Amino acid sequence: MVLPIVAYGDPVLKKKAKKIDKDYPKLDELIDNMWDTMYNAYGVGLAAPQIGLPIRLFVIDPAPFAEDEELDDAEREELKNMRMVFINPQIIEEEGEEWAFSEGCLSIPDIREDVFRQPDITIEYYDENFEKHTKTFSGLAARVIQHEYDHIEGILFTDKLSSLKKRLIKGKLANISKGKINVEYRMRFPNMKKAR
Length: 196
Prior knowledge:
The protein is α+β, with helices and mostly antiparallel strands. Helix content is 26%, strand content 28%.
């Protein structure tokens, strides 16, 4: 089932999310709904706070980035086959020289800005079967994970911008929070009772 995506300005997006256990109610159904919601909005990742749930859960499928011609074959293959669920993740290491990439967010439609992140991360997490993993990711795969991880920490990509950039997009952000934006997917706006 496709759920409405919470728009910029909703307090849930600024909350540090809580851990869950394997008895979390209807977890399989929730994960299925997150996939449906993400694909419906043509996203490459979706965190639970973006559907209004302050829990430490996100899904990613960065396959669309595999079309990037600048990638080598190994990275392209990795991105194509990386449909993953992260429950209670913890980034334990970030390494390398920060690099910029133009990021966007389903909760902040029509805004893209360069964000600097380190290229290599090591993360501990549970998968959808509550099996624990520790893995290292690099490049675009790491970036997608870092972006979604920020969501469960209550951080948005716009928080990482310079004060000048923030001032330049202030009006656009205000319009998003008021629902003054046209999007191709369902959204829930702060101060509005219903999704549209």
